[in-house]
Amino acid sequence: MNESTRRRGRPRLLDRNVGLEIATRLFWQHGYEGTSIADLTKAMGITPPSLYAAFGSKEELYQQALDYNVEREAKCRLDALEGEMPARDALAFYLYNVAEGISDPTKPRGCMVSTAVLQHAEENESIAKAVAARREYSIQVMKARFDRAVIEGELAADTETDTLARFYAAVVQGMSAQACDGACTERLKRLADIALSAWPGAPSIAPRSEK
Q1: Of 71, 103, 127, which closes a domain?
Q2: Taking the complete model, does pTM exceed 0.90, yes or no?
């Protein structure tokens, strides 16, 4: 067997980040159950054994794709909540950044985490629980920021910070669903404006004029 034949017989290697980029986009666009191993290997240009060797099972690849997506799409939002800006300003940044990200015409619409695997086949219960845990983590980051706002006097001592965090998480989930239905960035930011007007003690905000 000559050298060129041996090269042709070897499994194709794929740059890990390139593979994650491809997988993330497919899972984001089609969901976990709507994306098959065949879809993934075809898009990556590799064989199933090469995919399993590089990323593990489909479930493991999905988890890695979620990590990749969160790092690229959501890290700045979580950093804002954990930073030093006033809590309401951090929340405003969070909501407006979500509105921009989930309606970006260069990317799949909606949020890969906030509305992912809500309905699923029984055999995918473990992945649904894992995604739900990620949503809960985001809520707890938000709650922690609101707890700090109570300590620092930005919110009243009797503020139900858990309920407030879950309210804004529900807003984000609703925005994601509407983005999937075609809502534009400006309309989503108007929704964020109304949500921000519900901040305890905040003055009412006039809705944006639609462009």
Answers
A1: 71
A2: no
